From TrEMBL:
<feature type="transmembrane region" description="Helical">
    <location>
        <begin position="547"/>
        <end position="569"/>
    </location>
</feature>
<feature type="transmembrane region" description="Helical">
    <location>
        <begin position="366"/>
        <end position="384"/>
    </location>
</feature>
<protein>
    <recommendedName>
        <fullName>N-acetylneuraminate (7)9-O-acetyltransferase</fullName>
        <ecNumber>2.3.1.45</ecNumber>
    </recommendedName>
</protein>
<dbReference type="InterPro" id="IPR012419">
    <property type="entry name" value="Cas1_AcylTrans_dom"/>
</dbReference>
<feature type="transmembrane region" description="Helical">
    <location>
        <begin position="311"/>
        <end position="333"/>
    </location>
</feature>
<feature type="transmembrane region" description="Helical">
    <location>
        <begin position="702"/>
        <end position="721"/>
    </location>
</feature>
<feature type="transmembrane region" description="Helical">
    <location>
        <begin position="516"/>
        <end position="535"/>
    </location>
</feature>
<feature type="transmembrane region" description="Helical">
    <location>
        <begin position="602"/>
        <end position="620"/>
    </location>
</feature>
<keyword id="KW-0325">Glycoprotein</keyword>
<comment type="similarity">
    <text>Belongs to the PC-esterase family. CASD1 subfamily.</text>
</comment>
<feature type="domain" description="Cas1p 10 TM acyl transferase">
    <location>
        <begin position="296"/>
        <end position="678"/>
    </location>
</feature>
<dbReference type="InterPro" id="IPR057106">
    <property type="entry name" value="NXPE4_C"/>
</dbReference>
<dbReference type="GO" id="GO:0000139">
    <property type="term" value="C:Golgi membrane"/>
</dbReference>
<dbReference type="Pfam" id="PF24536">
    <property type="entry name" value="NXPE4_C"/>
</dbReference>
<feature type="transmembrane region" description="Helical">
    <location>
        <begin position="493"/>
        <end position="510"/>
    </location>
</feature>
<keyword id="KW-0012">Acyltransferase</keyword>
<keyword id="KW-0472">Membrane</keyword>
């Protein structure tokens, strides 16, 4: 009964909810969400720096997530590169001193907190030419004013960044009196114009006072209450924000530390000073505020302006706009023609006459329609990951965010099963399902940030290796059995693999190697093709007549293995080959091909294993050593059980080894040798964000609903792109050789144009 109810329910849902209606629903959702985010930006402002300085929350215990944007964790080299020839000054009390130490430790982790705490503390890195000073001014008074006033003089070198703040000493010394608060207001009023003047040439931040944990305060600090701190903060905000009459103040309020302190002040040792992890977070926020606009890190979207459109992006926008306009004109003309052919009434008989004209859909219409849809989809890609319209968040890994979805889809998969007519090893239905499961796991792996957990990382590397194994197995089997080395087959495979990536490279202004998996699969396909197509061409039909040809093919495979080993252990030779123009344009990332060498080397043997397995399996099958009749097992029960035992033991051994690895470098070194025992591109920009470094936020404040909605739109877009690619493949890659050669000439001219435009863009950037 349960099964019957399930089938009836499934049939009912399919009747009312088709793929077409799902895509329309996704389109409506995108338009509504875009309108809501646009209205929110207009109302709340579009400055992500303000969000970084004023709002956010903790993901877990120590990972700070600013509102609507991503924060980059700066390394030593990055910090020095950003702050070269810069002078940063911290002015204030012991809390500002703590912030100073945490900031300096980003540049030099060995810097020690020592010496007299109630005096100025200098720091200088002469190699990087970075200077950071702490100036001891625990009260907002004449002493602090004089220090700031000196910098306003034209003849004095001004710090590039000034971080100031003080209040707790005034509360403590004056026993929390109201007179002290009044004097604080007077003093900060006299300092405000000086800070405003400095803010025209330097970045000036006023740090609001963090709350205290009153239960831990010593007796001589009991007068420092959160009520008093709030009063001093209100005074500072009110005065500094009103220091300019007709415009917004240039002095930025560093209020985010208050939010950080509210979550962590309980961990304080004395109730007044924040724990080290909180100070490090505040210092990293300061680094992001200043450096993101300079270095433009991919996973640091806070304080980054929208990147300017490149020449190729502008040309792509014009092309897609013309395609949309052309399709609309074509559609209107076609619709008017269709109306003329509607049934008309015969005046004599009163009966309807039907002018039945079955007009076939022209290739031009399919082409315009495909580019029209693709243009709208690319606009969504751009909005998600370049236009700063939607929000972005950093990834944060927990075991539950990865394993619970995995368990859920496994349980759900039990209820969705179908019988297959195929019984052969690695048949199409089996490999498609295998790829589907792997894709689901990899998607969850990426969005949950599970790459930080080494055992999961290593098991996902096995899934990538398994996909490449299928590449070797599938393409070898096709060429071996069919013997079809024609250009049509090669062009079809290359077009299907690379069409979306080439479009994304243009629209998203990314190098081809950024989408590393497609170049990897493309290169391995060409390796398989060249290995089998070169003289002597050995296929199954030829080898059946003479066993000598089997030996010849094994020699070919052995030579391929030798080439793989040579390139894997000769980085210089590999880089020389792929640094040649125009290959360098395809495989360079950040000015070199190291990333490509690293990616290729990770799974260098697995495609060869797939080819070898296919050869042995098909050879044994042809000699009837293996029989695969319907319902017949491939092996006897004893052999099957033995192989199952070996598989389970191998998998457990691999899992134990992956869990015992100390770091990724050690695991990656051994992975190519052991991996044989064991919807990708769209996710880069419309499911993940910041070029896979973060998570796209369509619905803020509700992570679960956000994942559901963004996943639904992502799946619909991926399905539509798949259909567009199939339609365009039929038009752009015709079976007729003469037509195909003409199209290939056009494609070659197109890529020559891309290379020229790319060179122009590179020169303009430099």
């Amino acid at each position: 009964m349960a099964a019957l109810a399930y089938n009836l329910g499934k049939r009912e849902i399919n009747h009312y909810f088709s793929v077409r209606s799902a895509k329309l629903l996704a389109l409506v959702a995108v338009l509504l969400l875009a309108a809501c985010h646009l209205a929110s930006r207009r109302y709340r402002g579009n400055d992500s720096c303000e969000y970084l300085l004023s709002s956010g929350r903790f993901l877990g215990e120590k990972v700070w997530q600013p509102h609507s944007c991503m924060m980059h964790k700066y390394k030593i080299s990055e910090a020095k590169n950003c702050l070269v020839d810069k002078h940063i000054a911290f002015i204030g009390d012991s809390r500002i001193r703590q912030l100073f130490y945490s900031f300096v430790k980003i540049i030099n982790p060995q810097f020690k907190e020592e010496g007299n705490k109630h005096e100025n503390i200098p720091f200088e890195d002469k190699i990087a030419s970075v200077k950071v000073d702490f100036l001891w001014h625990p009260e907002v008074n004449g002493s602090m004013k004089q220090c700031i006033k000196v910098w306003t003089e034209d003849s004095v070198a001004k710090p590039h960044v000034i971080v100031a703040g003080a209040a707790t000493w005034s509360i403590k010394i004056h026993n929390g009196s109201n007179e002290a608060l009044s004097q604080y207001k007077t003093n900060i009023t006299s300092i405000a114009p000086l800070l405003e003047k400095l803010a025209k040439t330097s970045d000036v931040y006023w740090v609001l006072q963090d709350p205290v944990y009153e239960d831990l305060l010593s007796e001589n600090r009991k007068m420092i209450t959160n009520e008093k701190i709030d009063a001093y903060n209100e005074a500072a905000v009110s005065i500094l924000n009103s220091s300019t009459r007709n415009s917004k103040s240039n002095v930025k309020m560093f209020s985010v530390s208050k939010l950080i302190a509210q979550e962590t002040i309980m961990e304080s040792l004395d109730g007044l000073h924040l724990p080290e992890s909180s100070r490090e977070t505040s210092a990293m926020i300061l680094m992001n505020v200043y450096c993101n606009k300079i270095l433009k890190p991919v996973d640091g979207s806070c304080c980054q302006p929208r990147p300017p459109l490149t020449l190729m992006q502008k040309l792509a926008a014009c092309f897609f706009t013309l395609s949309i306009v052309g399709y609309l004109i074509f559609y209107i003309i076609h619709r008017n023609a269709h109306r003329k052919n509607k049934p008309c009434t015969d005046l004599e008989s009163g009966e309807e006459k039907k002018n039945i004209i079955n007009t076939p859909v022209s290739p031009l219409e399919i082409l315009l329609q495909s580019f029209c849809k693709l243009g709208l989809i690319m606009a969504y890609f751009y909005m998600c990951d370049r236009a700063n319209l939607f929000m972005k968040e950093n990834k944060f890994y927990t075991h539950s965010t990865f394993f619970i979805p995995i368990i859920y889809i496994l349980v759900l998969g039990v209820f969705y099963n179908e019988n297959t007519k195929e019984t052969k090893v690695l048949n199409r239905e089996q490999t498609d399902e295998w790829k589907g499961w792997m894709q689901l796991v990899i998607l969850i792996y990426h969005i949950s940030g599970a790459s930080t957990f080494l055992p999961v990382y290593m098991h996902v590397r096995v899934l990538v290796a398994a996909y490449l194994f299928q590449t070797g197995y599938g393409h070898f089997s096709y060429f071996w059995i069919k013997g079809d080395f024609g250009i049509h087959r090669v062009c079809q495979v290359l077009f299907r693999l690379n069409f979306l990536v080439v479009v994304l490279c243009i629209v998203m202004d990314q190098p081809y190697q950024f989408y590393y998996f497609v170049p990897l699969v493309t290169v391995w396909f060409m390796v398989i093709y060249v290995t089998l197509a070169l003289w002597p061409q050995i296929i199954q039909k030829k080898a059946n007549g003479n066993c000598f040809w089997h030996f010849g093919l094994l020699l070919k495979l052995a030579f391929l293995l030798l080439c793989i080993c040579f390139l894997a252990y000769s980085q210089g030779a590999f880089e020389k080959i792929f640094s040649l123009w125009p290959l360098s344009k395809c495989f360079e990332l950040k000015g070199n091909v190291y990333e490509w060498w690293f990616r290729w080397r990770l799974d260098r043997y697995i495609v060869f294993h797939g080819m070898l397995f296919a050869f042995i399996y098909l050879a044994l099958q042809k000699r009837q050593v293996l029989s695969e009749g319907k319902g017949e097992p491939l092996f006897s029960n004893k052999i099957s059980n033995f192989l199952l035992f070996i598989s389970v033991v191998s998998f457990l051994t691999y899992s134990i080894w992956a869990s015992s690895c100390k770091n990724k470098a050690e695991c990656n070194e051994l992975h190519p040798s052991v991996s044989v025992v064991q919807l990708f591109i769209c996710q880069y920009h419309i499911w993940l964000a910041a070029d896979t470094r973060g998570i796209l936020v369509l619905i803020p404040g509700n992570p679960m609903l956000n994942i559901i909605v963004s996943t639904f739109i992502f799946v619909c877009v991926a399905h539509e792109i798949s259909q567009i690619t199939n339609d365009l493949t039929q038009i752009i890659i015709p079976k007729d050789n003469s037509s195909l050669l003409k199209r290939l000439a056009c494609i070659a001219a197109f890529f020559c144009g891309l290379l020229i435009l790319s060179s122009i863009q590179d020169k303009s950037r430099h």
